[in-house]
Design a protein that fits this description.
about 350 residues, alpha/beta
Amino acid sequence: MTQTITSPQKVFILDLSLPELEKIVQAWGEPTYRAEQIWRGLYQQLWNASSQFSPLPKALRQRLEEEFTFSHLIPVTSLHSSDGNTTKTLFQLPDGLAIEAVLMRYERRNTLCISTQVGCAMGCVFCATGQMGFKRHLSPGEITEQVLYYARLLRQEGEEVTNIVIMGMGEPFHNYEATMKAIDNLNHPLGMNLGARRFTISTVGLVPAIRRFATEKRQVNLAISLHATRDEVRNSLLPINRKYPIQEVLAACRDYVAQTGRRITFEWALIQDVNDSVETARELAALLKGLLCHVNVIPLNPTRRYSGTGSTRERANAFKAELERHGIPCTVRIRRGIDIQAGCGQLATLHNSLSQ
């Protein structure tokens, strides 16, 4: 049975920017600095209940309780990889739908992979979230709360969040406004103060959004899920390619680098005998020639509805070597959390199908 939370009369406090919170607090007849106290409580102290805001007068704490809700996410289950380095959490939302977020522990960093939508409209055939279809956008606060949840867990261990990759469920640029607001709130100097360069946004290549992102000249890192060198292959893997084919995506990427001076990352899910040949690597090198970029290749994480399999280590290394021979920097990433289905959307697909 799915638990559903409803509080239609209350504002989700994590949806607000600091200026928006200040306006509300001022409308209550309180001084502006009270909003800053609340903000620090949310993002520095990591408080998630009105009763925890002890520096505030009792009457103001009561007003917070009456006007705001502090959480939309209920952790339903957490899975831990056998090596202890990856934790995946399934969160239930107020409408009964579910999303996932993943914590990946490395030697010197703790990276979160967070979601921006329930499901996804892009329909990438090898992605569990794409196989689910699109349900709804997440609000800024629902994106942000995934980070705060893990920040609390890490703080108990004397650790902290160091990096955030927005590569979980959903296409971030399809939910552009909410995604950027969440980043801005987490980046705010009076809050968590997570540096912009600690964030990486991954997109399948929504060209208008890439161009908009370029004009904003943010320090946030940009990654493009490319996965193919030829339109006919990319069409079969990423249906969005029919609207924004490879050359259009790469033109937007070149303009992005020209405007920002920032390196762009291309993500490449290596699928055995589909896009992992040395010849394909040679074609990719030709496409990316002269572009300030880096290629991240990772053998495909398996999903139930896609028959393709991840490439062998030998083919991955050969692909990397060919790119580097042509002057394209490349990293073969280690697959994380295979034993806990850490590929985005795999747990939530089952939960969301049962909740409907």
